[in-house]
Design a protein that fits this description.
This protein has 596 residues and is an alpha+beta fold. The protein contains 22 helices and 17 strands. The protein is globular, with a radius of gyration of 28 Å.
Amino acid sequence: TAQTPARVRLRSQLEPAGLPIGTAVRLKGILSAPPQPELPGGHDFARAAWFDAIGASGVLIERPQPIAAKLAVPLELQVHIAIGQLRAVVGERIRAALPGPRGSLAEAMITGERGAIAEERIDALRDSGLSHILAISGFNMAIMAGALFGLVRAALAAFPRLALSYPIKTWAAIAGFAGAGFCLVVSGAASATTRAFVMIALMLAATALDRPAISMRNLALAALVLLLLAPESLLDVGFQMSFAAVVALMAVYEDHAGERDLLSRLGIGHGTASRVVRFLAGTLASTAIASIAVAPLGTFHFHRLAQYGLLGNVAAVPLFTFAIMPLVVVSLAAMPLGAEAVPLWLMSQSLELMMWIAEWVAALDGAVSLVPAFAMPALVAMMLGGLWICLWRGTWRMLGLTGIAAGIAMAALSPRPDVLIAGDGSPVAIRLDDGRLSASGARSDSFALAGWIEADAEPRSAKEVAKAEGFACDDDGCTGLVEGLRIAIPRTPAALADDCTLAAIVVAAFAADPACSGPLLVIDQRALAAHGAHALFIGGGRIRIRTVAAASGARPWSGKAATARALEADDPPALVLAGPTEGLGADGIRRHGGPR
C-alpha cells in the first residue's frame, strides 16, 4: 500500500543466518517509528530516516528464512545488491587475510564498514582529531584519485612520442576518475563519499580541460550539483564540515599562492630535505586551517573539541598519505590475483602505528574539551563571519571577525534548560544549584540521558547522573526542587492527587486528571505524545517551554500526532509559556493555583 515503507532498518543479536546479499527472506521482528529527538533541537533521526526512505526500525526476534522472490527486482535495487555483493566479497577477503581487530581497521579503510571496530578505538580516533581518516570522504578519495592520476601521467610521460602526441594529462584524469568511482562503489556510496566524488570529478574535469582545478568557482559548482541532487544535504553535518574546510583551504590557497616564496625567504630550498620540510609545513598549515574552519560546526553538532587534533594530524597524515593509502590501492589491485595478503599485512602494520599515535594523543591531559549546546543563531553568526573572510579580498574582509566574535558571545550566553523530560515521560532531569544535571527514573543506558549529558557537556558518566541526586523518591514517585519550584513525578494516578496540591510542576507518564489545576504546569502523557520531549527554562518570573514538536515543526517525518498538534491554530498557550512565578510560597508553591 501507499503507507508501506520502502525500507526498514532491523538489527539482530541472533547468530548470522549466512544468507547472501540479495536473498528474499521472511522476517519476524518488532518495528517502531524512527525515534524523535531526545531534546528540542537535538539530532533528528526521523528526518534522516525519512530522506533515506526508511519508514521503521526495530529488532529481529527470529532468524530470517529464505523464500522465493514473488516480484521482479527493480533495477535500482539490483544495482544496490551488486554493489553490496562486491563489498561483501572485498570484506571477506580482508578478514581472511587479517582476522581480528587489524582486519576491522583495514576493512573500514577500504569498504567503510566500521561496525567491528572496538568502541575504545573509535573514541581514541575521535579524541585525537583523526576520526576523519576512517570516513571515506574527500581526503581519502583525493589521495586515491591523485595517486592514480600521478602514476598514470608519470608512466605515460616516460614515452616521449606518446607524451608529445597525445593528451596524456586527460588520460591520467580519466584514470583518477575511474579510481575515485571504484572507491565510491566499494565504500557503499555514502553521502560523504558521494559528495567527495562529485567534487573530485569536477576537479579532474577542469584539469583535463586545462582549467584551474582548485577554485571557488569549481567548489560552488560542486555544491550546486549536490544540492540539486539532494537538497536535504544542506543540513547534514558532513556536508557543512566538508565544504567549510575546503572553502577555508581554497581561500588561503588563492590569497597566499606565493607561500613558496615565503618558505624560500626562510631559507627552505628545493632539495630532498627541503621537500620534507615543505610537506610538513603544508600539512601543519592545512590541518590548522581546516580545524579552525570546522570547529564551530563540530562543537555545535557534537559538543566536543579535540584540543590536540593538530598534533595528531601532523603525526599521522604523512603515514596515511605515503603508506596506508598507497597500500589500499595495491591491495585492491592485488585482489583479483589473490595476492592481497602481503599488502594488507603491511597496511595493518601502518594502521596499528596510526592507532598508537591516536591513543597517545587522546591520552594527553586536556585532549578533549566539552562544549554545552548553543543556539543556532550563534552558529549562523560564526559561519557568516567565516564566509565573509574567505570570499572577500582586501583588509575589509577582517570585518568577518565581528560576526565570529558575536557568534562566540551568543554561544557563551546560551541558556541551559533547568528541566528535561523525555518523550515518554522517563527519565526526568533537573539542574541542581551547582549547575549539574541529576536524572530520576533513568537507566544508565538510557538513550535520552546520553543525549542530555552530551548536549550539557556533562563530564560525569550516565551512571552517576542517574543517581537521582536532589530528588526525594519513594514507591509513589519522586519530588525535587529546581530554581525554587517543587517538581513532582508521580508513578501512579493515586499519587497524583497529593502532587496536584503540593507541587508547582507535575510530570506524569500517564494521563492526568483534568481536576489537577493547582500546579503551574502539568505535563502528562497527552502532552508528551503530542509534543515529544520537553525542556523547561525557569527564570525572570517565567517558565519557558521548548518542545520537540515546536522545534521540528509540521514535517513529513515528525509523526502524525506532532504534525497535527503543530498545525492546530488553538494550540494551548500554556504549553508554550506558563504564567509568572510571583506570589510563590517559601516552598515554591503557588497557593491559589495557576494556569496549566
